[in-house]
Amino acid sequence: xxxxxxxxxxxxxxxxxxxxxxxxxxxxxxxxxxxxxxxxxxxxxxxxxxxxxxxxxxxxxxxxxxxxxxxxxxxxxxxxxxxxxxxxxxxxxxxxxxxxxxxxxxxxxxxxxxxxxxxxxxx
Length: 123
Description:
It comes from Methylobacterium dankookense. This protein is an alpha+beta fold and 123 residues long. The chain has helices at 61-70, 73-79, 83-88, 90-99, 114-122, and strands at 24-25, 32-33, 39-43, 56-60.
């Protein structure tokens, strides 16, 4: 048996997605996410570690990228699988102090941290 594809009506797609019109707030930095800003869903437990059907939160893309630039999927699953743990992590807290001074739609490229790059090379 095949899966049925979900279809949206072309005349008013927002009617089927009422959340699309509501203002969104980044779960990590607590700043509003404007409709035109880059954002994504973050799996609190990474999909590779069994989080496919577990909770997700909406984040600014820069906030999401900051998490994955600093930590591996295993470390996120082990000790950073909820928003409170992420906010209290020293590196993420330092990032949050910085990003909260930026406009709500701010985005910049995020590079993997030196420590994480070094750990990847050592494998």
